Amino acid sequence: MPAEHFDAIVVGAGPSGNAAAYTMGKAGLNVLQIDRGEYPGSKNVQGAILYADALERIIPDFRETAPLERHVVEQRFWMLSEKSHTGTHHRSDTFNEEKPNRYTILRAQFDKWFSKQVREAGVTLITETTVTELVKNEAGKVIGVLTDREGGPVYADVVVLAEGVNGLVGQRSGLRSEIKPQHVALAVKETHFLPEETVRERFNLADEDEGVVIEVLGSVSSGMVGTGFLYTNKESISIGVGCLVADFAREKIPPYELLDRFKNHPSVKPLLKGAEMKEYVAHLIPEGGYDAIPQLTGDGWLIVGDAGQFVNAVHREGSNLAMTSGRLAGESLIALKAQGLPATNDNLKLYRDALEDSVVIKDLKKYRKIPGLLEKNRQLFTTYPALLNRSMNAFLRVDGRDKRSKETEILKGLKKARGNWLNVAFDMLKVARAWR
Amino acid sequence: MSEKLNEPDFPAAEAIDAPEEPVETRKGLNIVVCIKQVPDSAQIRVHPVTNTIMRQGVPTIINPYDLFALEEAMRLRDDYGGTVTVLTMGPPMAEDALRRALGLGADKAVLITDRRFAGSDTLATSFALTSALTKLAEEAPIDIVFTGKQTIDGDTAQVGPGIARRMGLNQLTYVSAIDSLETEAATITVRRRSEGGVQVLQSKLPCLITMLEDTNHLRRGTLQDMLRAARAPLTVWSADDAGIEDPMKCGLRGSPTVVKRVFAPQPRAEKAEMVAVEGKTPAQIGDAILDVLFAKSPKLEADVSAKITA
């Protein structure tokens, strides 16, 4: 049997791979998608929030068939200390729109649905197959892949690496270096089941479609660079915490212990009361930001999604950037094909430019300095949240002392925590500059 | 062959009279493997609130016992030539199971699916599968029908024998190995695990074999198998296509079995008695266990004492 030749091979069936494969399949390209999971999505893990816009640009009517849990009507942001939390809520009835903006989802179900759309777009999908390496011609151009099955290689004009955060195929093929521990977070998550009405009552929701998201900073990460989250699904709650791998390695705190502490925090425990834990998962999240982005294109290959470090850690956005990069890659390859141009590194400038021009690179550039800032300023995760909670507590407690003394005490506490006022001012300035 | 046996009570291959004339020798074997798509029981969850089984989101798999049948069928095909067709009855989503079988190396796949099949018990299932097998045999006579030992969701082990009975095939159940196959004589010699030992049985073809678990190692399909599986058109038959004339024999109407109640068994009232072993010699532990056993069953003590005295 002569070796098969495809227009494109997509490595991976996560959001970026599916977006790329779907886009190309719809345009009539002959696409092979290869995933190592038992079924598409079986290896994929996320919190998970689905940002509608990115998917809408690929499948406009996705709301009609996609398995969505709740649309988000309220976002809480908590600064956590050992026994308290201080935070803000934003709840708005404008989120109850005809086409809501954000949804909670369960990835195992969502990915199955997405994969079905991909196959219906004419893409050939094979699962339980791991791409082991890229096949190159004498000129060094990637012309196909080898897998862990007999009977390879299989050839294509271009290989789309949608292989996820580790980028193992790219690494093995010498296209990129190993991911650095300070550029990647390890997140652990549990799914706790509760009756739908209980979720609704506990989170003050009007019906089974409304949902709440809580993002948490402070003692939840035990001094490491990281955050916690709690999302409401229809009949369950997803709760998790993630910190930089480098920090886990240094602090030697087991991730599950961190999550256990979070679950037992007095602000969290009542929300989970009576729930049955049904799932425990862990996953790596690329959080190195703009400066950690590897080379994204080469002769006959390009990178999309987590493999390209396309995660905005500050805004907890990843799958939307993955889908957007996948779509842009697909559109670029369709354009090259239409012009009869090969997928050389030069021609793939089309994809690089599209990315630069999109929210993906724009946002990563905006927060370029954040990863470095957080790594060097752990007081943002420890001192300030603790101080904020202590201050609020002192401020609200009525104990016979006069208010001016209390305010003075709070300000003294702030000064003491950071040594002097200059340091406090510097911290503010640093955050403001990195955010800008 | 007899020296290979574990049990001298079964010294030689027992010939079973073939119910039909031997099939004429053809090029290669025509083998059909009946499979079933089942929920992955390792991942089934009981809804914490309603206490019902949550099938939604539970991945489906090919009944694990059927995979031993499929592998054995493919081995025969590899050795003697021919084709392996996988056949299943189920909802449209059972296509996934068939494609998986193709990816493992099966040659053809047939799905029989019809609303009228819903609610089938083993009688109705074996009827529907037999109809499809008969239809398939019109294209080319079938040499061997394989099934798994049983399914993991129904656990009846009735469908295989049911098909054999309906088709008038010799049934070789609980087969642990296929020793030989004579294409000229159209005979097959297999090992059948039975209570107390292993039977070596020889049968004329065609026959039906239900394969025991852990009897072979499932292969990994090649990349070409996977590509073929992803793209090959499936044969999908309705009840009419499968040549079923009497719909009263199908689905719920053709199923005399009624599930009256599903319940979790009560825990046994009797609790295990613990025998302390700390600081005791093996002989003392043995004595302590005997004391407990004899206290529970004085008759056992009497019997044992009588034997020892004798």
TrEMBL record, chain A:
Per the entry, which co-factors are needed?
FAD
Top-level division of the source organism's lineage? Bacteria
Q: Name one Pfam family in it.
A: ETF-QO_FixC_C
Which keywords fit this entry according to its UniProt record?
A: FAD, Flavoprotein, Oxidoreductase
Q: Where is the FixC-like C-terminal domain?
A: 371-436
Instruction: Provide the function of this protein.
Output: Part of an electron transfer system. Could be required for the formation of a functional nitrogenase Fe protein. Probably accepts electrons from FixA/FixB and reduces a quinone.
According to its UniProt record, which protein family does this protein belong to? Belongs to the ETF-QO/FixC family.
UniProt protein name: Protein FixC
Organism taxonomic ancestry: Bacteria, Pseudomonadati, Pseudomonadota, Alphaproteobacteria, Rhodobacterales
Automatic annotation (TrEMBL), chain B:
Residues covered by region (Disordered) = 1-21
What this protein is reported to do is described as: May play a role in a redox process involved in nitrogen fixation.
State the UniProt keywords alphabetically.
Electron transport, Transport
Keyword Cell division on entry: no
Q: How does it assemble?
A: FixA and FixB form a heterodimer.
SMART domains, alphabetized: ETF
Tell me the InterPro entries matching this sequence: ET-Flavoprotein_bsu_CS, ETF_a/b_N, ETF_b, ETF_beta_N, Rossmann-like_a/b/a_fold
Q: What is this protein called?
A: Protein FixA
User: PANTHER family attached here?
Assistant: ELECTRON TRANSFER FLAVOPROTEIN BETA-SUBUNIT, PROTEIN FIXA
Q: Which family does it belong to?
A: Belongs to the ETF beta-subunit/FixA family.
- Domain of life assignment: Bacteria
Where the record annotates domain Electron transfer flavoprotein alpha/beta-subunit N-terminal, the positions are 50-246
Which GO MF terms are attached to this record?
electron transfer activity
